[in-house]
Amino acid sequence: MNSVLIIEDERSIADLYKIKLEIHDFLVKIAENGLEGLKVLENFKPDIILLDLKMPVMDGEKFLEKLRKTNKETPVVILTNVSKEEAPATLWHHGISDYFIKAHFTPTELVNIIEKIIK
Asked: What is the pLDDT of residues 90-117, one digit of tens each?
C-alpha cells in the first residue's frame, strides 16, 4: 500500500484529499503545519508528501529545508494557492517533484499525478 503525508493547514482541503486518496487504497496521514509534519515523519515514512506553502507555525519552505537535511529521497509535491512566480526560489533547490495550484486540479487529477510520481 502506498502512503502519503499531507501537510495542509486547511483541514477541509486536507480531508478532501485524504478521502479521495483512501478510496484509491493509499494510507494517508495529515499534519496541519510543517512542524507537525516533521513530527509525523519520525514514525511514518510516506512514499510522497503533499505540501502547502502558507501555514502557521512552520511554513512549507522551512519544512522542506529541514526535511532535505535528513531526507533527500521522498518526493515532495507543492500543492498551494501561491503562484510559481510568487513562490520562494529556494523550493527548486530543495528538489521538489512538482508544483500545482490547488484550484487548477481536481482530487482525481491529483491522485493520477501522485501515482505517476511514485511509480
From this structure: 776 677 877 778 778 788 888 888 999 8
Lowest average pLDDT, out of 24-33, 82-91, 99-108, goes to 82-91
Query: How far, in Å, CA of 8 to CA of 54, rounded?
Result: 9
Strand extents, DSSP E, 13-91: 27-31, 48-51, 76-80
Asked if residues 49 and 77 have their Cβ atoms less than 8 Å apart, the reply is yes
Specify the pLDDT at position 27: 97
CA distance 85 to 70: 28
Among residues 72, 77, 113, which one has the least CA distance to residue 98?
77
Model's pTM, two decimal places?
A: 0.91
> Which residues is 79 bridged to in the sheet?
100
- Count other Cβ atoms within 10 Å, centred on residue 82: 17
Spatial strand order in the sheet of 27-31: 27-31, 3-7, 48-51, 76-80, 98-101
Domains and CATH numbers, the chain: 3-118 (3.40.50.2300)
